[in-house]
Amino acid sequence: MKVAVVGATGMVGEIMLKVLAERNFPLTELIPVASERSVGKTISYKGEDYKVVGLADAVAMKPDVALFSAGGDTSLEWAPKFAEVGTTVVDNSSAWRMDPSKKLVVPEINANELTKDDKIIANPNCSTIQLVMALAPLHKKYKMKRVVVSTYQSVSGTGVKAVKQLENEIAGIEGEMAYPYPIGRNALPHCDVFLDNGYTKEEMKLALEPQKILSDTSFSVSATAVRIPTAGGHSESVNVEFENDYDLADVRKLLSETPGVIVQDNTDTNTYPMPIYAHGKDEVFVGRIRRDETQKNTINMWIVADNLRKGAATNTIQIAEYLIENKIL
């Protein structure tokens, strides 16, 4: 099992290597891949050193699977080249997500749609993954009509430059800016670029990707995405209107029985999800579950997950694990 990690020296790539090791992924050969400026560097995996190679060399090595986290342009150019030599690509960028010929996969929800013909598989947006993990079982039982979500997203979702900006601001150091404004002691209602409709790309990902993952356009999602000065972990305030009424105890039971979801919901003990506790974990945490008293069949929830793990690296690796376990690779 030859595995290429494309973008191995980046923030998500480093987490991918960590998660591969933690989960004892059954690889026999690791191929760390990065841009030309990183070629020749050494990375460590399970106590062994590996030389970083370029994309062309990696394609020539014909890996069984390539886990991509190197940006949309790189994915658009190189994923098809890997696929041509028989490699199955699991891509973390937004490049292929809404391509009708590509599957958009959260393993707990729709991995059963994957076949040997799927040589390029898209990993959803980090905020989408944690949202649909909580919504999927509820939609199945109560049928969603409309979802309104506001996100509180970590600077780590932007990348190393943004994390450094926050660290510099905390330390009182002037440095390179990832955002058009300070992020420390601030909240920016601006994730990704603005589109003609006034929404950002991030907000439209949240609107469209859940419909594709759940293979259902009967519900709608309206999103506002906000960047906040947390170092890791995304949070979401979610309001869901259902076709059918629900019982709160049943909702909590249903979510607590959902693989990959942990319910933290006890206001008597101030128990609720927070990014500081989600850090380094692969589960999606749900709390503050309560009835919307202004509208029938409607619920409020608070959803938190580590955006670099379940929101990116872990979900990608879980897709690859599914392919292996089900002999699709």
H/E element sequence? EHEEEHEHEHEHEHHEEHEHEEH
Q: Tell me what the CATH architecture of the largest domain is.
A: 2-Layer Sandwich
Range of helix content = 25-40%
Give the DSSP E fraction (strand runs of 2 or more residues): 15-25%
Can you give a write-up of this model?
The protein starts with a strand and ends with a helix. A six-stranded mixed β-sheet has the order 9-8-10-13-12-11. Strands 2-1-5-6-7 form a five-stranded parallel β-sheet, sandwiched between helices. A two-stranded antiparallel ribbon has the order 3-4. Helix content is 33%, strand content 23%. It has two domains: 2-124 and 312-325, NAD(P)-binding Rossmann-like Domain (Rossmann fold), CATH 3.40.50.720; 127-307, 2-Layer Sandwich (Dihydrodipicolinate Reductase, domain 2), CATH 3.30.360.10. It has helices at residues 11-22, 55-60, 72-84, 107-110, 126-142, 160-171, 201-213, 248-256, 275-278, 309-325, and strands at 2-6, 29-33, 42-45, 48-51, 65-68, 88-91, 120-122, 144-153, 220-227, 234-242, 261-263, 284-291, 298-305. It has ten helices and 13 strands. The protein is an alpha/beta fold and 329 residues long. The model has no long low-confidence stretch (mean pLDDT 98). The chain is globular.
